[in-house]
């Protein structure tokens, strides 16, 4: 029996090799892996010695040889295969433990060159892994060092035959997945500046861990990371609190995405992925108080996000309100101490802005496939907005409309946002008709609606939208426009003395 061991990540490999060597496996290896195993006192035959062919082209060609792939791919149950192996002096290779060049780590380094990237695209490794996985009934394929322990223990007690067929099949599936993710990373790197909507798309995520359950206790859940990205919610450093759940990740992402919209100090409070309080203010503690005042009832048990380091003053201002998650790029030491002392269960996340080619892409699975679209992160040119009413909005009202428009993409359609002094004072979300969203926004804002502005994520479909907004005290409206009834909206706004702006941009979020 022979085992081929060739790994870039050699964690645990020496112990694994020693164990299977004692169980009767002859060890084949390459280059640096072989030297390390030999240095540990393990008897190793270099692949170049076994094949009679040297490693060439600076190591690009080491294992691409019939004596290697014939030994892996031969079906032991076929007489014709075993006869050809004997004819050509090919030994069977019954175990393959290989992992790949660090392509992702290489291309993630600042300033990496194309030459460096190309040299870290593994060819021999994936070829060996695929060959072994294809022939898994006869070959044990290992790509994950976490599997070394149980495999070595099983072989030590019962030889290669102690690894059952179903276990070999599971290892083969893991191997093909491993190569698939690797190939996806290479493909995405080479196509970073290309159209993301290629004829074939492979995204390739790696598992970070299992979740207690999915959205509900009867659903399974797990969290995965984009290997080519850094930062983001999935890689947040958890500084306090309970384990994150499926809905925790969704809500934290909603808060984080919203505050990232603003260059100014921003605070967003989220409930069930919808912002219920948003404000910007130069003073972070005041921004928090303003956001909370927008909807203090919904805020309880919610998620709060910040786009600047949380100050001790802000942490003190948050006393008395239970938050399940706090999300921010950093925390003053005393602020963090306050959160830890106040509630040991509150999840406190330190998040960095994410990088990666998927940042501008959204993927949604539907029955039979998936939908892909670019993210709604359009930087609006406010200079193109058109005031279409006799009454012109004031500079303060225009500023509030700009603020409200930045919030709109983060609220489920049909969406309206009421704002005053760069604070969301009310919102309506996810309703089958827009007038109901306006009604809900006015009901939640109460007296705060008087003198506020209203931004709509799409055109207003009927004059009752304008009339209801006016009845609630709204003084200026922005909408996308584009309806056959635009002029009716404008005429109604003129009749009621409400300022109206057409933005030309829709922000549906389904």
Which helices and strands appear, and what pairs or packs with what?
Blueprint lengths: L1 E6 L5 H10 L3 E4 L1 H9 L4 E3 H5 L14 H8 L5 H9 L5 E7 L3 H5 L6 H6 L4 H11 L5 E3 L5 H11 L6 H26 L15 E5 L11 E4 L11 E4 L5 H14 L6 E6 L2 E7 L3 H11 L1 H4 L2 E5 L5 H6 L5 E6 L4 H10 L4 E4 L10 E6 L2 E6 L11 E2 L7 H13 L8 E4 L4 E5 L5 H12 L7 E4 L6 H9 L4 E4 L6 H11 L2 E4 L8
Parallel strand pairs: 1-2, 1-4, 2-3, 4-5, 11-12, 12-13, 19-20, 20-21
Antiparallel strand pairs: 6-7, 8-13, 9-10, 9-11, 14-15, 16-21, 17-18, 17-19
Protein traits:
Cytidine Deaminase, domain 2; six-stranded mixed β-sheet; single chain; Rossmann fold; 510 residues; alpha/beta
Structure explained in plain terms:
By secondary structure, the chain is an alpha/beta fold. It folds into 3 domains: 2-190, Rossmann fold; 231-350, 3-Layer(aba) Sandwich (Cytidine Deaminase, domain 2), CATH 3.40.140.20; 382-502, 3-Layer(aba) Sandwich (Cytidine Deaminase, domain 2), CATH 3.40.140.20. 37% of the residues lie in helices and 19% in strands. It is built from 19 helices and 21 strands. Helix 14 links the parallel strand 11 (302-306) and strand 12. The mean pLDDT is 91.
């Amino acid at each position: 029996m022979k085992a081929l061991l060739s790994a870039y990540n050699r964690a645990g490999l020496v112990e694994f090799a020693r164990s299977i060597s004692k169980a009767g496996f002859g060890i084949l290896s390459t280059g640096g892996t072989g030297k390390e195993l030999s240095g540990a006192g393990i008897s190793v035959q270099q692949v170049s010695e076994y094949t009679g062919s040297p490693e060439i082209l600076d190591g690009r060609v080491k294992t691409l040889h019939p004596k290697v792939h014939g030994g892996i791919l031969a079906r032991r149950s076929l007489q014709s295969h075993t006869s050809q192996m004997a004819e050509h002096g090919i030994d069977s290779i019954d175990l393959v433990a290989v992992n790949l060049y660090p392509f992702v780590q290489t291309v993630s380094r600042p300033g990496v060159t194309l030459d460096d990237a190309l040299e870290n695209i593994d060819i021999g490794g994936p070829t060996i892994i695929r060959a072994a996985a294809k022939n898994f009934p006869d070959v044990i394929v290992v790509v994950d060092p976490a599997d070394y322990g149980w495999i070595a223990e099983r072989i030590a007690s019962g030889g290669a035959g102690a690894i059952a067929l179903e276990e070999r099949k599971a290892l083969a599936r893991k191997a093909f997945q491993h190569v698939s993710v690797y190939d996806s990373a290479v493909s995405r790197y080479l196509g970073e500046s290309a159209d993301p909507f290629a004829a074939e798309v492979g995204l390739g995520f790696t598992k970070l861990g299992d979740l207690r359950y999915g959205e509900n206790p009867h659903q399974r859940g797990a969290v995965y990371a984009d290997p080519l990205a850094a930062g983001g919610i999935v890689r947040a450093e958890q500084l306090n609190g309970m384990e994150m759940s499926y809905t925790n990740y969704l809500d934290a992402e909603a808060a984080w995405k919203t505050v990232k919209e603003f260059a100014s100090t921003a605070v967003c409070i989220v409930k069930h992925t919808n912002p219920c309080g948003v404000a910007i203010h130069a003073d972070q503690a005041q921004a928090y108080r303003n956001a909370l005042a927008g909807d203090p009832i919904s805020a309880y048990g919610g998620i709060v996000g910040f786009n600047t380091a949380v100050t001790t003053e802000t942490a003190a201002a948050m006393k008395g309100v239970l938050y399940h998650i706090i999300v921010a790029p950093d925390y003053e030491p005393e602020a963090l101490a306050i959160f830890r002392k106040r509630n040991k269960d509150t999840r406190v996340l330190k998040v960095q802005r994410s990088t990666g080619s998927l940042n501008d892409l959204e993927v949604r699975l539907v029955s039979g496939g998936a939908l892909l679209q670019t993210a709604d992160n359009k930087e609006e040119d406010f200079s193109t907005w058109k005031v279409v009413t006799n009454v012109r909005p004031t500079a303060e009202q225009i500023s509030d409309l700009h603020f409200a428009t930045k919030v709109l993409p983060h609220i489920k359609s049909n969406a309206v946002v009421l704002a005053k002094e760069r604070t969301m004072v009310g919102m309506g979300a996810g309703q089958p008709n827009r007038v109901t969203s306006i009604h809900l926004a006015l009901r939640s804002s109460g007296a705060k609606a008087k003198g506020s502005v209203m931004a709509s994520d799409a055109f207003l479909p009927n004059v009752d939208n304008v009339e209801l907004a006016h009845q609630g005290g709204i003084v200026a409206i922005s909408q996308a426009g584009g309806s056959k009834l635009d002029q009716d909206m404008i005429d109604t706004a003129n009749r009621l003395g409400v300022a109206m702006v057409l933005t030309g941009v829709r922000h549906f979020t389904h």
